[in-house]
From TrEMBL:
EC class name: lyase
Name this protein carries in UniProt: dTDP-glucose 4,6-dehydratase
Keyword Lyase among record annotations: yes
Organism name: Denitromonas halophila
Entry annotated with the keyword Nucleus: no
CC cofactor: NAD(+)
CDD domains: dTDP_GD_SDR_e
Domain NAD(P)-binding: 3-322
Pfam families assigned to the protein according to its UniProt record, in alphabetical order: GDP_Man_Dehyd
PANTHER family hit by this protein: DTDP-D-GLUCOSE 4,6-DEHYDRATASE-RELATED
Amino acid sequence: MILVTGGAGFIGANFVLDWLANSGEPVVNLDKLTYAGNLETLKSLQGDARHVFVQGDICDRALVDALLHEHRPRAIVHFAAESHVDRSIHGPGEFMRTNVEGTFTLLEAARAYWGDMAEPAKAGFRFLHVSTDEVYGSLAPDAAAFTETHGYEPNSPYSASKAASDHLVRAWHHTYGLPVVTTNCSNNYGPYQFPEKLIPLMIVNALAGKALPIYGDGMNVRDWLYVTDHCSAIRTVLANGRLGETYNVGGWNEMPNITIVKTICAILDELRPSEAGPYERLLTYVTDRPGHDRRYAIDARKIERELGWRPAESFETGIRKTVQWYLDNPTWIANVQSGAYREWVATNYAVR
Ligand code: NAD
Ligand code: TDX
């Protein structure tokens, strides 16, 4: 049994599906079901005894203690977070609570649980903290990509809260010996991503004939990784990562935002041509995000050298699959946009 937090969100849900497809090991999934949590994504697991869903908050110490003692997981894979940079700018409070206080609560619960464990289970226990490349700050155009030794220079309330959580995880290892590993990953994309993030927002807006808002000059650069590659990296680090280490995870795929959006427009022109003309007509340059980091780039050589992980999906195939997925799943999108997905728990899913 493993405990996953945030397993109803974009990456967490992809991870739960990927984990159960790749291993028979059961998962207890603790998720608060904020606006970003969507059990409809996990509907294929209804009735599957290997998946136990618990609606709850990672800040609730009594609940986390009870889950650890009931299910005796051999690992915690910690995804739960507030994840959207723009939301963190408009309202940083929840980011501090979930990302900082929530991680602290989990670490304390894990420390107590692990401290009471007997060998050999104790030696095998792992706390895997899922984090981001944004903790390293912004790179100059010609600067070398982030390695694991790059200093922390977070610039947004989101990245500052994730940096704080990374530091807590590090300290709990250094001080208490808690067996932790941390992954710092670049921008993920793929099925089931909430349409507030760049790629799904552009697909959904284009299909609705709405403006495609490009922040600033559109030349901000991100590294993009297909979500199932992130899932395989996490499985690899969980299995073989060295204790107390951090591993950068990336797609070797740096791209300016405008290139991403134009690529989506071209794929849609081919797969779902619009009578109104090419989708690029919808490109709209808007006011820049405050404090907008110019460039992120990940040097993922350590995880390849030590653990043999490399991304399997190219951007060309990954972005096509992603656009196709949104074309094939209008109900998922409609339910997210109408808020109807929130009803899923009450009507369609047995929650403990
Ligand atoms: P998401 O916003 O799609 O999902 C977050 C999930 O956490 C949701 O299901 C939400 O209900 C849950 N949650 C939020 N607060 C909670 C709380 N207090 N208690 C329990 N559950 C709570 O996020 P995502 O994009 O899937 O990201 C998952 C993790 O990966 C985050 O830690 C994020 O920082 C990290 N990450 C994301 C990316 C990316 O590109 N999306 C890249 C690198 C790292
Ligand atoms: O409408 C938009 N227009 C636009 O130009 C949106 C939503 C975004 N952008 C730009 C801002 C960024 O430069 O596109 C880029 C990507 O934006 P987001 O999808 O909001 O992602 P980002 O801010 O890079 O952060 C993401 O990657 C790292 C995730 O949201 C984080 O959780 C993860 O840690």
